[in-house]
Amino acid sequence: MPMLWVGLALLMIWPGVAMLVNYPVAAARLAQGAQLDCETAWRCAQELSRPVIPFPAQLWSGLVNLSWPLNSSTLPYNALYTAAETLAGLGLALLVGAVTGTVLAFSRAFERMVLPWLVASQNVPIIALAPVIAVLLGQFGVEGLLPKAIVSAYIAFFPLSIGIARGLQRVHPLQLDLMRTYASRSWQVFLWLRIPAALPMIFTSLKLSVTMALVGAMIAEISIVSFAGLGPMILGRLQFSDTTGLWAIMIYAAGIGILMVQGIQLLERLVLRGRP
Amino acid sequence: MKAWHWAGLTLGLLGMLLTVLLLPPGWGWSLWGSWILVALSLWRLAQRDPGWWPPGLALVATLLLIEGLLRGYGVPGGLIPTPSRVLLTCWTLRELLWRDVLQTFFLEALVGLLIGAGIAGVLALLMTYVPWLQRGLLPYVAALGSVPIPAFAPVMITAFGIDWPSKAAVVAVVVLFPLLLNLVKGLTDIPPAMLDLLHSYHATPWQRLRWVRWPHALPYVFNGLKIAITLAAIAAIAAEFMGSPSYGLGFRIRSEAGRFQFDRVWAAIVYATVGSTALFAAVVALEKRLLFWERR
Fold it and tell me: pLDDT by residue for chain A (276 residues), tens digit each?
C-alpha cells in the first residue's frame, strides 16, 4: 500500500519535472524563431520532438510506436533476442561455473592458486573486457547469438563459480558424519548432500549475476556489428537523439531484467520448496 | 620433500623465463616442459601452504606461459598482444591513459558516488523518521538500480549531454540502492535499550542521531560503500561504452577494440583494474581508520 502511494506521488511529480526541464529548451527555441506548431512556450514544452525528459503522454506514444507492429524492427522481438542471449549466457556460465566450482571445492591447491583471483575479480570492472571478447570472437568467425551469449556467460561466470564452490563446501560436519554412517560413497555424498546444500547459494549468485549478464550481452551487441537485440536499437535511436525512443527501450530493458530476476526467484521457490 | 618442490618451482620458472627471453623457434617443448614443472611443484606446495604466493606465482607462471605461447606460435600481435607489449603500451601511453583515468574514475565514478551518497543520505534520514517510506520507496529505488546500464546511459546522455555529467548521473543512480539499503538498516536497526538510555539522558533528536544512530550505521555504510565503489567503476565504464567525448577508459577500450589496437585496449584494462582496485583499497583503509572499534 505505501508503494502505491509513493508510486502515485512519483507519477504526479513527473509532468512537473518534465515541464521544469523542457520549458527553458522550448522557450529558447521560440526565442530563436524556430517554426513550431505551437504558440506559447508552455504548449511547446509538451510537444518537443527531442524532449530532455519526455512527458507521460509522449512516452506512452513512443512505447506504442516502438512496440507495434510485431516485427524484427520493433522492441518486443529485439527485447526477446537480448533476453535469449542472456539466458543462453547464464546457462553456459552455470555449466562452466559448475565444473570450476566443483574443482575449487575439492582441490585445496587449485583453490589456493585460483580463488584469490576469482574473488579479486569481483572488485574489478570485468565488464571492461566485454568488447575485447566480442571483437575477438568475431575475428574467429563466431557470429549471431553465440558471441553475445559467451560475453554474458563470462560476466556471470565469476560470481557463479565462487557461489558454487562456497555452496558445495557449506555442509555441516554432522551431516557428513551421518552420510559416513550410511557408508555412502563420495559421489553419493556429492549428489545427495553437497549439491542440495549448494542450491540456495547458487540461486543467490544467479540472481546477483543476471543483471550484469544482461549488461554484458548488450555491450557485446554494440561492440560488434549486430542486427538484432536492444543494443543496436539503442545505437540507432541515439544517432537521432530520439529521447522518447530511448526511454521506451530503457523500460523494456528494465522489464527484461526484473522479469529474469523474478523468474529465477520463482524457480528457486519451486526447487527449494519445503525448505526452511 | 619440500626442498624438492621449491627446486622444481625455481627451475621451472627459470626455464620459462629463459625460453621466453631467448626463444628460438621450435623450442616450444621447453616452454611446456618447464610450465608443467612449475604447475606440478606449485600444486604440491599450495596443498600445504596458504598465503599470498601460490596465487601470485600462479599468475606469474600463467603470464609467462601466455607470453611464450604467443611468441612461440607467432600469433599476430595485433590480435592478442603479449603481456610484455601491453606493459610497454601502459608506459608509452601513460599521459593519454592518465587523462582517461581522471575522466572515468575522478569525474565520473567519484563525483557520481558522492552525489549518490548525498541522495542516499537524505532519503535514509527521511526513511528513518517516516518508516512507511521504507516500504513505499525502497522497491522503486531497487528497480531504478536494476535498469541495465547500457539502456540507462543513453537516456542520461540525452538529458545531461555527452560529457562526464551524464556518466556521473548513471553512477549516482546505480550506487543509490546499495548505499541506501545499508544506511537505512544501520540507522534503524538500533537496539531499543540504547535509544532508551539516550531518552533517559534527555537527549535531543540531533544528539540521538549523532551519538547513537550514526556510529551504529557506520559499519553498514562501509559495507554499502564497498559494494558501491566497485559498481561505480563498472557503471562509469559501461556508460562510456554507449557514447562519450574522446576520452575515458570505456571510450578508449571500445574505440581501440574497434580499430584492432588490442595492446592499447589491454593497457586501458590494466589501468581500469588498477584504478578500481586502488579505490576499493582506499575505502577499506578508510574503514580501518574510522571503525577503529571494530578492528579484528
Answer: 788 888 888 888 888 888 888 888 888 877 777 666 677 777 777 777 778 888 888 889 888 888 878 888 889 999 999 999 999 999 999 999 999 989 988 888 888 888 888 888 877 788 888 888 888 888 887 778 888 999 999 989 988 998 998 888 888 889 888 988 998 888 888 888 888 889 999 999 998 889 889 999 999 888 888 888 899 999 888 888 888 889 999 999 999 999 999 999 999 999 988 777
Distance from CA of B155 to the nearest CA of A (A): 6
Around Cβ A14, how many Cβ atoms within 10 Å? Answer: 15
How far apart CA A60 and CA B23 sit, in angstroms, is 65
Interface size, chain A vs chain B, as Cβ–Cβ contacts under 8 Å? 168
CA distances from B176 to A76, A230, A269, B17, B140 (A): 29, 25, 28, 47, 11
CA distance A6 to chain B (A): 6
Probe site for chain A from B9, B135, B234 (most A CB atoms < 10 A): B234
Q: Is A267 on the interface with B (CB under 8 A)?
A: no
Q: Do A112 and B50 touch (CB under 8 A)?
A: yes
Helix axes A243-271, B149-160, angle to 10 degrees: 150
Q: What is the ipTM of this complex?
A: 0.87
Q: To the nearest whole angstrom, how far is the Cα of A108 from the nearest Cα of chain B?
A: 6
